[in-house]
Amino acid sequence: MHDGRGRKRGIILLGGAMYALMASFGWQAEHLEVSRPGHALLVAAALLPLFAAALAPLLRLSERNAQAARARGSFSAKKAFGVILACYVPMFLVLFPGSFAYDVPFQLEQVFTGRYSTHHPLLHTLLLGGCVKLGQTLGSINLGAALYSVVQMTALAACFATACASIARQSGARAARWSAAFFAAYPLHMMMAVNATKDVLFSGLFVLTLALVRETVTAQRLDWKLGAGIAGAGAGMMLLRNNALYAVTAWLVLLLAMYRRRALRTAGAVLLAVVLCMTANGALKAATHAAEGDLCEMLSWPIQQLARARNLHGDELTDGERAAIDELMPGESWALYDPTISDPVKFEFDTQALLRDVGRYARVYVSVGAKCPQAYLDALLKHTYSFWYPYSRYGVSGYYLQMGISDRYYEWCDFERISDQSLAPRVRASLSWRFGAQGAMQIPGVGWFFNMGVIVWVMLYFVLREMYLGRFGSFACAMLPVLLWGTFLLGPVMAGRYIYPFVCSLPVLASHVRGG
User: Fold this and answer.
1) Taking Cα atoms as reference points, which of 66, 77, 144 lies closest to residue 104?
2) Mind listing the pLDDT tens digit for each residue in 81-114?
3) Are 195 and 401 contacting, i.e. CB atoms less than 8 angstroms apart?
4) How large is the greatest C-alpha to C-alpha distance in the chain, in angstroms?
5) 492 preceded by cis ω (within 30°)?
6) How far apart are alpha carbons 66 and 368 in whole angstroms?
7) CA 111 – CA 115 distance, rounded (Å)
8) Confidence band for 263, pLDDT divided at 50, 70 and 90
9) Dihedrals phi, psi of 291, to nearest 5 degrees
């Protein structure tokens, strides 16, 4: 008993310290041009008792709720699927034939020209382009776009309903019904369901994989249906985002370290998903003769750090350091530096120059960092803070959620393009401004429900809760979204669509597993 109390006190202090550090450094990143690390640590130390005091009653309440949890009634996955899908139809009509922005022009170019690249997931590119091309063959490219939206809506609703069925088996029908209501009514689901980006299908498959994996780990059983579900959904999500492959690899190491032989069956199903993913991706690359994507997609942090140092501290660098940065960022593209998004500099980054002499540029990166540690720290904080701090305003370059039809990057296209055919254009315009542009932050109170930092704080709370309750099977599973979040922090920008898999994970993380 005393050991349990000591663990719980430690977790309260750990959680309080985590939130205090995020709050202190996040506030500086949002409000100050240059951070003050020493001051931030002092403020975090002062905030620690306050966060711990707020966290303690929440965790104690969760303990009472876990003890009182009971299965009530029954749950129908088919009914949940129908309700969830029906809730997405009005947004489909408002945004008809859907939102085709972000990377859509580049992906369609690959399909219509036959010049493929792994820069975007081939599975998603082929699905999106195949639907649009089918519509063009039938006489209307908008018909093909609408077909893709319907396929995506249906697949997303099916993933959610199946995940809810797994929650019902783990936590009871009541938890599953609440989860289904969240998947149906939370506005971000409605908007993402008709948004033609890989993040949507990826998120649906991710939450399904998470639910099934938690079911096998906590129940310590794995029948062929669960195994097939994990292998299929896991392979699909990894085909749609490399981030998932990296996160799953690290998670398997954690799972086996915690559970050893007891986790071998679950680990086997997940490894099968990895094998299926790599086999399918290899087959797609061979069939399409796809070129490899640019390595710079993985270098957002160093690109931002070097660009910031070159802009703010160029006079402090040696001629050799300046020349090296100029070679990597030709045409003084480092001057395009935007603290919140790496794309302006990254698009001009010379990856081939880097690969010709990796050792030299690595030494330059280290030497510049030794001279400009403040610039490196600030580049990191300003690039990522919106993904771990509840910001008071959406301060990222670009829309929180891009809605509508992109009219850019179609230079290759000499035929009809996808066009906006909204059945409620005024509603679409209002949503695009009120929600898409700033994530509803201009609406008092409402914006906090979509604030990326708030969503991450809630996710981290559920991880702490599992540790506090001593439910280490659930804790191990809750670490999968945390590891995925870690890979997203390395990305080019913190945008609304990148938070989506973590929003989808919340019902699984929130539901208590019956029986400990």
Assistant:
1) 144
2) 999 999 999 999 999 999 999 899 999 999 999 9
3) yes
4) 73
5) no
6) 51
7) 7
8) confident
9) -80, 155
